[in-house]
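Narrative summary of target 7.
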Amino acid sequence: MHEDHAQRPVIFNAQHIGKTYTMGEVEVVALHDVSLSIKSGELLVILGASGSGKSTLLNILGGLDVPTTGTVSYRGKDLTNADDKTLTLFRRKAVGFVFQFYNIIPSLTALENVKLVTDIADDPMDPREALELVGLGDRTSHFPAQMSGGEQQRVAIARAVAKRPDVLLCDEPTGALDFSTGILVLDVIEKVHRELDATVALITHNAGIADMADRVIKMRSGEIVEELRPVVRKMPSDLSW
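Modeled conformation, tokenized:
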């Protein structure tokens, strides 16, 4: 986080949130009494093993899910009791999502995949500019089958940031990639964070990635068990996973 971000406002405020899923006659507790605030412009890394509650927390922050208990707000507006229309507008206007699997459409070019978002956004980037930002300015007419996994993930990032989201939520964005390709994708996310001044929350199970964060939270069994700030923040190219 840049030094002036220390004075920036809290944009997400989650208080005592819990999430329980009912699967047949079995109740599964995905989150238990989690409280978390995220400041504007922060790069937050969420660490934890599979099943620790990371994705559930991210989905609640992004308006894809709602907590069973507790409250969550975005810029002072309650998301906990929001109706579907309000959550849809929140996701459309404020949040960009990047997932482990790229979810780009095979029959569309890179440019056309990004235009899916820019055509409906209020104040979008030029889709070519978004692809330039992720280093794919020369790949606009390529289809996903003509691209590597890392390039496809960068198209997904371009699509997510093209609507100029306030928040970028990334769920294991390097999980399907090899080491060197993952570094390139992390570099793109860090660049988006820096150049667009976006708030970024990034889920991973890989502790090495934590060194690029402003703040790290570690989760286990649906709870936050540790919070720390790296002493020296590293760029993705300096990381060793």
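The domain at 3-7+40-67+83-238 is CATH 3.40.50.300 (Rossmann fold).
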